Structures are given as structure tokens and as C-alpha cells.
């Protein structure tokens, strides 16, 4: 979900306090409603006294006829507080005033399932509390209110989603190659990489395109193809638009294709498009008076890591909106022959793995990143564009520098370094796997080497997202990193 939509949806879960939603965004994804609620509660508990007080004071007086959030309006209406008699209104107003004068903040109670009488009696009783006690009680009630609001939100979204079934189709493995695309130049230089740009003499991409919309439903339910864009036409659309594309990146290309597709076919509501690099590497030649030089004619198809970009667009009211955009590097495989350990883990009756203070470590990495401003992702402003090659070089640099105690800590530090070098990014995510070789020959005379074989099929994996909040906590950034010997 797009950041702005996420905040808009959750901004009043805690009354007139969108800062809670802003902070909980970095904890995505959430396993459940309870998980989301617990993280939002943690943020409030971790807030300053002034922030907590402002949160409490943002709530309306119960029974008052004042401006309040839609959620508060519905909650109070649900138990009839919007239909008080003149006598009841005066009683609530008088007690609210006394409470406010004593504590400096309004009486707060999660009213769902309560009655006017119970609420009034509770207000009378709690007016006799000490301020500190009532402050904590108010926060506890706010936590309950937040949970009820989340439940109601999920219920409403479920009803809306149930009315719309998935209607989409598309084309995969759309390979397109172009020679002499515009080169990528002017990128930001970083200490970990000597990468300065791409010639794009050979630009290869494998595209998957998926389109959707309710107007396509008859093609599924009635066999009516009158609004169907054939997937073969999609293939042609992608390939021919590569010839018209004037940019220099995969991100820019798939956004150009997606926007043009929605302009061409106005009955299509959504488009998801993924572009994977088909990498080609430079070769060398002796056909030069200066000896061995790089060839500008011959390139070899690489089987190494590749860049990837994903984009989802939705048609709005006269607009085309970006719902999700991400970039990444796939299939980065790195082996470090020493300076890696794995010790201190739980040992019990199920443990057979020995501790190892110096092992080779073979890892597979998929690294993804999202921009604060999706406009930076296309490369139209090269200095703000993050190149997959530079992220790769940061990963190898950190791997080299670190005495690696675990893959988890390694990817955490890589993510922190990437965010440090590229502050235009919102977050960096990782999917990693441990494919460390199994030893065959442990000792070789007069050599520090060993003989290994492929590991047994089960492998360990990790998923983790590094956010900007991690930068201040990173030991690596404060100079406490252990350097390999």
C-alpha cells in the first residue's frame, strides 16, 4: 500500500494523531490486526509525556456537541450520546467541566458496549482519582478505543473487498533487447563502488505485465472478448515501446510502458508490471594499438545477479496514481572464505549443529529498496537514482569488512549503509539464504585450505527490512564494526 494511503486510512485510529500512523508505517508488514494494534500501542507508550498529553487532549468530551473525528461521532452515536435530553446533556456537561478543571484533559472511556448510565457513573467515580492514576487510565481506554476502531476498519474494508473479485490477466516472459539506449550518466559516487554509469549499448529486459478492471469481468463470466486486449498485443506493445523510450533505466521504462498502456486502453483500471534485467557484460579485445582494451561491439550474456523493478498503477479520477514501486537486485551470490562465525545460539535436545568460530559463508541475497519520492526511481534525475550495481558493491564491501557473527546482522548492516549513502530511500528489504558448503576434507597438509561440497538440500533463510530509524542504532555507523583479518 502506498504510504499516503496508509496514513490516510489509519490517521484517526488514535484521535487526531496521525503521528502514530506515521511511525507504525516503518514496522510493516503486520501479521494480524492484533500485531498492528500492539505496535501502535508500543509507539504511544514510547512517546514523551507531552505527546501522550496531547493525544489525550485531542479527544472530545463525551456527550459534547463539538467537532470530532468521524470515528468519535459514530462511537458516541452508537450508544445514544448524540441524543441526550436537555437534563442529561446538562449533567454530562457539568461533570465534564469538573473533570477537565481537575485534570486538565477530558474524560475518556471506550464506550462500545456501554450505556449512558454506566458512563456517567464511571465519570463520577473516576473524578475522585489522583491525576497520575487518571492519566494512565485515560491511555488504557485510548488503547481500547484504537482496537475497536481497527476492528471496524477491517470489517468495512472486508465488505468493500468482498464486492470486488480479482479480475486480471497478462503476459509473462516478454523479452525485449535494444542496442544503443541512452546511457546512464551523472549518478552519485559512493566510496564502496567505482560504478559511474551504464553505457546501455545492449539493454535487455524481461517484462511481466498484468492488467485488471471490472469491465473485463464479462470475458470471464460470459466469454465476451470485446474489451480484451490480447496478451500477444501486450507483448508487442512492450517491445515496440522500448524503441520509443528515451530514458536509461528499467524503472523508467516500465513506468513509461504502464502509463502509455493506461492512456491507450481507458477501460483498464490497474496495471502491474515487473522488469527484470537481462544482463550483458563487456568483453575485451586486442584490436587496438594500445593493447588489451574493452570492446564496444562484443558483449557476453551474464548469468550473475540482475536488477529488477516493480510498479503498480491505478486509474483515479482523471489521474494515474502509483500504488507501489520498488527496485532491487536479485540472485547476488557471495562466498566469504573466512572471518565468519555462528556461536551462542540455543542448544537443546534438538541441536546437532556445532558452533563454528571461523567458517566459510556462502549466501544468496535479494535486496530491494523503496524511494521516499517515487519520482526519483526513474533515473530522470540521475543523481537521485540508486543503481543496483552500487547496492551490490555496498553488500560486498560490508561482507568483507565485517567479522560476520550471523547473516541477520550482516544484512542489517548492509541495509544501514545503503540508507546512509542514499537518504532518498525510505527502506531496504532483504531475502537471504544460507548455502554454506559442507566440509569434506578438514585438513590439508601445508595449507589453510579445506575441501567442501554442496550443502544438504534444506537451507536457512531470513527476511528483514531496514528503515531510517535503524540508522541511529547501527553500531557500524558509530565506528564499532569488527574488521576481518
UniProtKB/TrEMBL annotation:
Catalytic activity of the protein: 5-hydroxy-2-oxo-4-ureido-2,5-dihydro-1H-imidazole-5-carboxylate + H(+) = (S)-allantoin + CO2
Source superkingdom: Bacteria
Keywords: Decarboxylase, Lyase, Oxidoreductase, Purine metabolism
Domain Oxo-4-hydroxy-4-carboxy-5-ureidoimidazoline decarboxylase: residue ranges: 1-151
Pfam families per the UniProt record, alphabetical: OHCU_decarbox, Uricase
Pathway(s): Purine metabolism; urate degradation; (S)-allantoin from urate: step 3/3; Purine metabolism; urate degradation; (S)-allantoin from urate: step 1/3
Transmembrane segment boundaries: none
InterPro entries: OHCU_decarboxylase (IPR018020), OHCU_decarboxylase-1 (IPR017580), OHCU_decarboxylase_sf (IPR036778), Uricase (IPR002042)
Kinase keyword on record: no
Name assigned to this protein: Urate oxidase
Amino acid at each position: 500500500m502506498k504510504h499516503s494511503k496508509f496514513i490516510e486510512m489509519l490517521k484517526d485510529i488514535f484521535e487526531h494523531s496521525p503521528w502514530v500512523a506515521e511511525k507504525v508505517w516503518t514496522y510493516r508488514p503486520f501479521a494480524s490486526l492484533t500485531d498492528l494494534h500492539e505496535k501502535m500501542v508500543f509507539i504511544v507508550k514510547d512517546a514523551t509525556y507531552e505527546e501522550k498529553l496531547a493525544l489525550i487532549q485531542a479527544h472530545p468530551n463525551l456527550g459534547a456537541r463539538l467537532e470530532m473525528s468521524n470515528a468519535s461521532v459514530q462511537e458516541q452515536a452508537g450508544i445514544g450520546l448524540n441524543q441526550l435530553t436537555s437534563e442529561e446533556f446538562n449533567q454530562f456537561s457539568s461533570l465534564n467541566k469538573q473533570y477537565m478543571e481537575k485534570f486538565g484533559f477530558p474524560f475518556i472511556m471506550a464506550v462500545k458496549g456501554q450505556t449512558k448510565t454506566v458512563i456517567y457513573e464511571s465519570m463520577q467515580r473516576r473524578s475522585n482519582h489522583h491525576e497520575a492514576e487518571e492519566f494512565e487510565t485515560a491511555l488504557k481506554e485510548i488503547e481500547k478505543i484504537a482496537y475497536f476502531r481497527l476492528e471496524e476498519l477491517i470489517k468495512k474494508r472486508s465488505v468493500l473487498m468482498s464486492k470486488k473479485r480479482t479480475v486480471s490477466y497478462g503476459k509473462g516472459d516478454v523479452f525485449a533487447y535494444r542496442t544503443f539506449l541512452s546511457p546512464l550518466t551523472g549518478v552519485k559516487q559512493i566510496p564502496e563502488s567505482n560504478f559511474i554509469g551504464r553505457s546501455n549499448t545492449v539493454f535487455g529486459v524481461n517484462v511481466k505485465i498484468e492488467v485488471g478492471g471490472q469491465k473485463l469481468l464479462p470475458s470471464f463470466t460470459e466469454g465476451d472478448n470485446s474489451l480484451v486486449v490480447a496478451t500477444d498485443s501486450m507483448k508487442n506493445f512492450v517491445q515496440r515501446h522500448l524503441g520509443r523510450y528515451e530514458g536509461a533505466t528499467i524503472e523508467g521504462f516500465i513506468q513509461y510502458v504502464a502509463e502509455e498502456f493506461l492512456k491507450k486502453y481507458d477501460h483498464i483500471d490497474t496495471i502491474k508490471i515487473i522488469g527484470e534485467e537481462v544482463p550483458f557484460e563487456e568483453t575485451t579485445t586486442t584490436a587496438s594499438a594500445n593493447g588489451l582494451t574493452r570492446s564496444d561491439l562484443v558483449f557476453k550474456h551474464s548469468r550473475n545477479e540482475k536488477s529488477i523493478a516493480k510498479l503498480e498503477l491505478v486509474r483515479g479520477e482523471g489521474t494515474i496514481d502509483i500504488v507501489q514501486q520498488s527496485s532491487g537486485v536479485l540472485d547476488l551470490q557471495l562466498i566469504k572464505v573466512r572471518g565468519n562465525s555462528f556461536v551462542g545460539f540455543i542448544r537443546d535436545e534438538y541441536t546437532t549443529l556445532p558452533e563454528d568460530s571461523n567458517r566459510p559463508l556462502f549466501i544468496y541475497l535479494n535486496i530491494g529498496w523503496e524511494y521516499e519520492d517515487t519520482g526519483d526511481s526513474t533515473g530522470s534525475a540521475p543523481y537521485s537514482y540508486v543503481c543496483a550495481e552500487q547496492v551490490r558493491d555496498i553488500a560486498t564491501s560490508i561482507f568483507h569488512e565485517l567479522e560476520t557473527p550471523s547473516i541477520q546482522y550482516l544484512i542489517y548492516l548492509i541495509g544501514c549503509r545503503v540508507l546512509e549513502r542514499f537518504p532518498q530511500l525510505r527502506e531496504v528489504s532483504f531475502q537471504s539464504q544460507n548455502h554454506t558448503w559442507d566440509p569434506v576434507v578438514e585438513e590439508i597438509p601445508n595449507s589453510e585450505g579445506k575441501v567442501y561440497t554442496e550443502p544438504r538440500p534444506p537451507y536457512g533463510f531470513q527476511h528483514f527490512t531496514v528503515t531510517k530509524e535503524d540508522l541511529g542504532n547501527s553500531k557500524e555507523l558509530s565506528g564499532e564494526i569488527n574488521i576481518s583479518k
